[in-house]
């Protein structure tokens, strides 16, 4: 189940059920099942505080993913995991990135959400090859959004 929350901002997120169904499909396509995923929309200052406090990083980011997945095989993408985690998403940075990349706010927001779920599945973005794979997977699943009325 995917739950949506706000922290220190006022933000209304539409199509929660459709997004939940879409993410369930993403998980299933990767050999995983959807457990409990919390999507927490917040501000830049809030995500900076989370980044400093829990990761020891002193910079802004669009998303921080905390992985509480169960099962699966360590180091193997998908592998039957039950996806559980928290996705902290800075609405401020998503808006700025949408402008920078020439995307709509909602396109960039959905990209960031699926990016976080792909991290839970086991994809990474530390090397150029990892980044290329992550971007490819993001595009693949973003292209499927219309099937869910998004």
What is the alpha-carbon Rg in Å?
A: 15 Å
Q: What coarse outline follows from CA principal-axis ratios?
A: globular
CATH architecture type: 3-Layer(aba) Sandwich
Strand order of the largest sheet: 1-2-4-3
Low-confidence stretches: none
Estimate nothing, just give the exact number of structural domains: 1
In short:
The chain is of the alpha/beta class. 46% of the residues lie in helices and 19% in strands. The chain has one domain (2-148): 3-Layer(aba) Sandwich (Collagenase (Catalytic Domain)).
Blueprint (SSEs and pairs):
Elements: E1 2-6, H1 16-29, E2 33-42, H2 44-55, E3 63-67, E4 82-90, H3 91-101, H4 105-121, H5 128-142
Parallel strand pairs: 1-2, 2-4
Antiparallel strand pairs: 3-4
Helix pairs in contact: 3-4, 4-5
